[in-house]
Every structure is written in structure tokens, then in C-alpha cells.
Amino acid sequence: MxxxxxxxxxxxxxxxxxxxxxxxxxxxxxxxxxxxxxFFMTAQVCxxxxxxxxxxxxxxxxxxxxxxxxxxxxPTPISSRDLWSLLLQRHPRLLLLQDxxxxxxxxxxxxxxxxxVTLGDGxxxxxxxxxxxx
Length: 134
Hints:
13% of the residues lie in helices and 41% in strands. By secondary structure, the chain is mostly beta strands. Strands 1, 4, 5, 6, 8, 9 and 11 form a seven-stranded mixed sheet that branches. The longest helix is centred in the middle third of the chain and has 11 residues, at 80-90. It is globular.
């Protein structure tokens, strides 16, 4: 018999204390994070939700109308394709750059695809379209 488990969400707290989840049977800690981090928890999966800063360059600035923005509730790990989809939901006009853009995360270029990106809270993600000039 299987029982559906509803996801539990931990909300941000201003206390700054740590959250530690403990296995009731063994007493072992299996997840620990700052209480200022949001996360969802099910019986099998824990998804951490972070805040990231997205930086836009060149044509992506024109299409979004912003140079940078804070995005909250970004799951990690996340594929670069899913991260791109998240940005497309916010700025549908970015679709014009669909097959031309790459991300830069912690000074590393990441192509849009199935590559998994593990982000940290407060990380910067740069949207880098093709650049031209001389």
C-alpha cells in the first residue's frame, strides 16, 4: 500500500538559525541548511529553492528591459534548459535568442541543454547572447 506524501514547505525565517532534518528511526541527520533557505520536502526528494541574480547583456537587455534582476525560488540542482525555461516564463521575448545564448555561472560558460547546474544562494547567472563589434 502506498501513501501519497504532501510536500512540506519551509518558509524563510529571519532568525538565522540552522534547520536540521533527522531520520526518526536512526537519529541521523540527512539534511541541513540555513533556515533562510526555502526548500520543499517529500518522502523521496528534497529540492532547495534559492535566490539568484540574473545579469543580462547585449540583446538580452533590449528584450527584457532590465540589466539585472533577483529571482527567488530557483530550484537547485537545475538543468540549464530548465533555467532557460524559467527565464522565458518571465521574459517571453528572450525566445528570439533561443539557439544563440549561453549562461555564465561562476565564471564558467554553460550551454543551454541537459547539463545540470548546481547553484548557490546569491549566485549570479549571466545571460550571454552572441556579441559583435570590433
